[in-house]
Amino acid sequence: MSWGAYRECSMLQVPNVPELFTHIKENKEITNVVEMGTCFGGLTNFLADIFPKLTIHTFDIINNVVSFYGHANINFILEDVHSQDTLTKYKDVLSLENGSSLLVIDGGDKALEFNYLKHFAKSGDILMVHDFSIDREDFDNRGKAIWDCFECGESDLDLNGMERSEFFEKGLNYAWGIYEKK
């Protein structure tokens, strides 16, 4: 599998993943973007470009970022999102009172991050989890042809109070599971 890149920064994503995020932006009014797992910053830079009026809050425990290319709307937070203290400290950026937050989960323990973050989400917020297939059988039959990494399935997620979003089926084509808080 090949990785995508954006602005000379690697994205550990299928190369055409910007299509998915553009589709979400065009079909849902997003007022807040939070990314868990910045890595090299490719996806972060893309999100900053398609949401130029929003601050992109991005968390990671290691600074591997190549460059943010002068984006003033990126708030890089070098802290461990697996810590409940960190999440409590940043609860105000995780889900704004008005509008819909897009919580992009692509850190080191996606199921743990999803299960923590869903408690900060409000009705209408979107939680996206990467390296996702519905289950091992789905990955073996469909997912492997899209992306070679399976780290999270539905049985790993606490879906109480969540539902598959309108973007769920499309997300599977990019190795993303996409849920909405009820």
Secondary-structure map with pairings?
Blueprint: E1 4-6, E2 9-11, H1 18-27, E3 30-36, H2 42-50, E4 56-60, E5 74-78, H3 84-89, H4 91-94, E6 100-105, H5 110-117, E7 126-130, H6 136-141, E8 162-164, H7 168-172, E9 176-181
Parallel strand pairs: 3-4, 3-6, 4-5, 6-7
Antiparallel strand pairs: 1-2, 7-9, 8-9
Helix pairs in contact: 1-2
Overall description:
The protein is α/β, with parallel strands linked by helices and 182 residues long. Helices cover 26% and strands 24% of the residues. The protein is built from seven helices and nine strands; from the N terminus they run E-E-H-E-H-E-E-H-H-E-H-E-H-E-H-E. A seven-stranded mixed beta sheet has the order 5-4-3-6-7-9-8, with helices on both faces. It has a two-stranded antiparallel ribbon with strand order 1-2. A hairpin with a 2-residue loop joins strand 1 (4-6) and strand 2 (9-11). Helix 1 (18-27) packs parallel to helix 2. The protein starts with a strand and ends with a strand.
Q: Which residues sit in consecutive blocks of at least 5 with pLDDT less than 50?
A: none
Return the average pLDDT rounded to an integer. Answer: 93
Shape call: globular
Rounded to an integer in angstroms, the radius of gyration calculated over CA atoms is: 15 Å
Taken in chain order, the helices and strands follow as EEHEHEEHHEHEHEHE
Total DSSP helices: 7
Structural class: alpha/beta
